[in-house]
Amino acid sequence: xxxxxxxxxxxxxxxxxxxxxxxxxxxxxxxxxxxEDQITDSDFGEKTLYAHSDGDCSEFKTLEDLRLFLDEExxxxxxxxxxxxxxxxxxxxxxxxxxxxxYDAISVGVIQPDTLFLTKKEAQQHIENNRHHYNSTAHTYAxxxxxxxxxxxxxxxxxxxxxxxxxxxx
Length: 170
What we know:
6 helices
């Protein structure tokens, strides 16, 4: 085994022994989780999403966003002060094509696919290096490989083996 591999294993072992587990049982591993809006029944909605879709999707966060999207300030929405009031008019009077939508949504924590890290430090570094792939709520999330005997054994080996006893390959 190469010297740099032995050094890597020793450093990984130390990090696995000393890192936080964020309250999870061993063996712990890390993923990336972020909060995303999901459409829900109006009884459960935490917020309302306003959108337009004609192949592309535009989300409106403010009344000014809606006005700018329409390229002209429609007289019928000019005097309204809230996006919700203006959207009522748009849905009633200007939505024959069915392009405008209003949804009730709830923010839900979603584990991001293709993320698995042995250490929290590596997961944090991944977020920093790949921020453009995530929204502002992205964070490390500890999970337990519950009843996975293979992972438990691997973590035990990584935590207890004396890697300095390994010989360097010539």
